[in-house]
């Protein structure tokens, strides 16, 4: 009787190349040889990118896998919690780059980097401590050394001093930088990684007869470990009355969202994509300007992704029920097409944070938005165990868990 392990290697590779990414876990459990082979090469990559969007979403302080089927807009979304240790740890921020996920724990005690394809994790301790107001990015330099950028505030300085530090996976160390800056990155803005570098939406402060704030695209170079020159956005960049967000398009382009709330009689939405982009230059072209359902974007948290072939944009935000009842709010995925197509999908009740005043009375209620890693997930063979630091946590934390889609 012929066993699967007896099959010719070229035949096995051909079989695995046709396996959908979502079925790799089942294939790995079938045969030890197939399991080892799938971890030395990436399979299912091309098929996945053509059929659906694979990504990750942070909901209810948990990391979930997300699959969006562009061929089936009737029931396009599938969201599942990932297994293992990440299902036991509360997460507040998630960043994606090169097939790796950087997750920030809710208690801000440490970071964890996860390779879903290999099922590896790496816990990263702070140089001193982390803070809830910190901003992060994940990238790599020209030698493919992966690094983490952390932006923080220098509480000891009265001047506008930019403070940031870079963690190097290879050396397992943090390096601290101080510089002056005429720009600022809003706390709600999340950097987007593209080809190893990270791009932020920032506010450039122009000093003149009066202080003006112009929104810019600000790159961070992980090779030089410094911020590059500001790049222009394709739409009016004055901050007041406008909302902007960026996302990644298959690690090849950036997409920029522009929402003008002050446009009468209804808000207008524009989505632009880059024709070319580098650390020193950028050019844009219009992708979509939907004429209907623009109000669905008004409660947007900033997370969205697009599919250029299908001419579809998916925005993640909230419904409006909490404005009427003040008791609950649903998280939604709003699908918008250029031809006026619109569909809103309820993806679950939004957790709420109750803020109290100094007397203990309820001051306000904030409903958490779903946060989506806008880059479509591409598997990676990056070994997180190389130069892995000695664990500073209990053994159960150093555990592997796998992609669950």
Automatic annotation (TrEMBL):
F-box domain span? 1-47
| SUPFAM superfamilies linked | F-box domain
Cite the SMART domains for this sequence: FBOX
Q: What is this protein called?
A: F-box/kelch-repeat protein At3g13680-like
Task: Please tell me the species this chain comes from.
Answer: Camelina sativa
What's the domain of life for this entry?
Answer: Eukaryota
